[in-house]
Amino acid sequence: MKTTVLGCAAAVLGLAALGPAMGQDRSAAEGIAEYRKMLEDGNPAELYEAKGEALWKQKRGPKNASLERCDLGKGPGVVKGAFVELPRYFPDTQRVQDLESRLVSCMEMLQGLNGAEIAKTPFGRGEMANVTALATWIAAESRGMRFNLPQSHPEERKSYEIGKRVFFYRGGTHDFSCAACHGEDGKRIRLQDLPNLTKNPGDGVGFAAWPAYRVSNGQMWGMQLRLNDCYRQQRFPYPHFGSDVTIALSTYMGVNAKGAQSIAPSIKR
Ligand code: HEC
């Protein structure tokens, strides 16, 4: 983790120099693509998918119930296609929710688990690790499908507008916004391409790639953790798990990605 912070700080200083037209750029990009291909054979995300599917079907919690009646937006128990339409508005919680926050709601409503406690649990631990595994499986069930977030409910449109504003909001010690790193084409920090998330970055890029297995730390990351880490890179305080602001950012990126194909769960450096 520490090395990433230092590396990023150094790399960010050089951001302006990282134009798309550099001579060595093509071969570097090809090298990265090759490396990614190699990693794709045997993506450990499969282990999390299996765990997530088992958790979905397992009777657990004080109510000794499974999640098989959980409504992810397409009706109770419908998993296929749910991922590419999230975040969306849910009448029962009266909130726009992303996949991870919705899963916590279902764990609370159906299984009687304590949602507030889960939201406070560090990533990778206890029930939070279960949320990530569930999200991994549910995303996998929509692999190859195209993003099509609903925007018919006023709260969904509001979420998009808030997300857009947050994306461009500058602050912190370095006066960064999300757009500082993700607002132009052709940017890169070290080996990481920085997709332009203010528009549709294309199939399997950005929003369409997470949850992802991170080779660098051997962990499965959902979008909530992805955003948490970008808040760190932005030198902002960490956002709360499932907070409106993180969901709004996901709505913004998800709507922008309309028509892009999901490759989640993917594998990343
Ligand atoms: C200081 C630069 C910086 C800032 C500011 C920043 N990010 Fe990132 N972001 C990165 C880097 C670097 C990566 C790739 C990380 C990696 O692979 O290790 C990344 C990756 C991502 C990805 C995944 C892209 C993909 O194709 O896998 C998303 C989505 C994302 N950021 C969203 C955001 C949002 C939303 C914000 C604002 C809250 C933000 N980022 C702020 C540097 C930044």
Characteristic terms for this protein:
single chain; 269 residues; mainly alpha; Cytochrome Bc1 Complex, Chain D, domain 2; three-stranded mixed sheet; two-stranded antiparallel sheet; 10 helices; 44% helix; disordered N terminus; binds heme C
Topology, pairings included?
Blueprint: H1 2-13, H2 25-40, H3 45-57, E1 88-90, E2 95-97, H4 99-111, H5 115-120, H6 126-140, H7 154-168, H8 178-182, E3 187-189, E4 192-194, E5 212-214, E6 219-221, H9 223-233, H10 244-256, E7 266-268
Parallel strand pairs: 5-7
Antiparallel strand pairs: 1-2, 3-4, 5-6
Bound molecules: heme C.
Concise structural overview:
It is built from ten helices and seven strands. It is 44% helix and 8% strand. The chain has 269 residues and is mainly alpha-helical.
Give an account of the 3D structure.
The protein has 269 residues and is mainly α. It has one domain: Cytochrome Bc1 Complex, Chain D, domain 2 (Orthogonal Bundle). Helix content is 44%, strand content 8%. The strands form 3 sheets. Strands 6-5-7 form a 3-stranded mixed β-sheet. A hairpin with a 4-residue loop joins strand 1 (88-90) and strand 2 (95-97). Helix 3 (45-57) packs across helix 6 (126-140), helix 4 (99-111) crosses helix 6 (126-140) and helix 7 (154-168) packs across helix 10.
